[in-house]
Design brief:
By secondary structure, this protein is an alpha/beta fold. It is about 35% helix and about 20% strand. The protein has helices at about 5-15, 60, 75-85, 95-105, 120-130, 150-160, 170-180, and strands at about 20-25, 30-35, 65-70, 90, 110, 140-145, 160-165. It starts with a helix and ends in a 7-residue tail after the last helix.
Length: about 190
């Protein structure tokens, strides 16, 4: 369907990478990907890209913790790399890991995928923490591939504080996190 290539391009655009596709009928297709963090130099763009929204890293942000609830390994790695310079990041791939992470340390914010493998999904986990007095204060951002208005309504009704469709620009994600991140009372 070509959806995989479109998602790949979106992820690369979000992370500052580039993709080039060269296809010749009967000869095959060559896909070249540049990852800026790997030190590769991307080819010059044919058009000057719009500057991404600015995002300033501060010491307050470095001390905060984000729990990423995501069952896809590639997305887990991407989120750790993307957020790791700004926040302390813990990843949970399923309900059991999510509960274990909460038993170990209470995060300042949760990024919750709505579709998780296993018996519990992001909606049920969000409802679960909203029922616990010691956890209900934690901001939850639904970060999901589900893009319908109905999905947003369900997530917000379950107790999510915000809703983002992935892939989303990293600067937007960081700004949304910053808006919901509780103030650092120890500073």
């Amino acid at each position: 369907t070509g959806l995989g290539m479109a998602l790949t391009k979106k992820f690369l655009d979000t992370g500052g990478g580039q993709i080039e596709i060269d296809s010749d009928k009967g000869q095959g297709t060559t896909v070249t990907i540049w990852f800026p963090k790997a030190g590769a130099v991307a080819p010059p763009a044919t058009q000057e890209p719009a500057a991404p929204p600015a995002y300033e890293v501060t010491a307050r942000r470095r001390r905060r913790t984000v729990l990423v609830v995501e069952d896809d390994g590639s997305t887990q790695e991407f989120m750790q790399a993307a957020l790791g310079d700004v926040y302390d990041v813990t990843v949970a791939g399923d309900a059991e890991q999510f509960r274990a992470a909460l038993d170990h340390d209470i995060p300042d914010l949760i990024l919750m995928d709505l579709s998780l493998s296993g018996p519990a999904d992001g909606i049920s986990l969000t409802k679960e923490i909203r029922q616990k007095p010691d956890l209900r204060h934690i901001p939850v951002i639904a970060l999901t591939a589900h893009a319908q208005d109905r999905d947003r309504q369900i997530a917000m009704s379950a107790g999510c504080n915000d809703f983002l469709v992935k892939p989303c620009p990293l600067a937007e994600l960081l700004n949304r996190i910053d808006l919901l991140m509780p103030e650092d009372t120890a500073a």
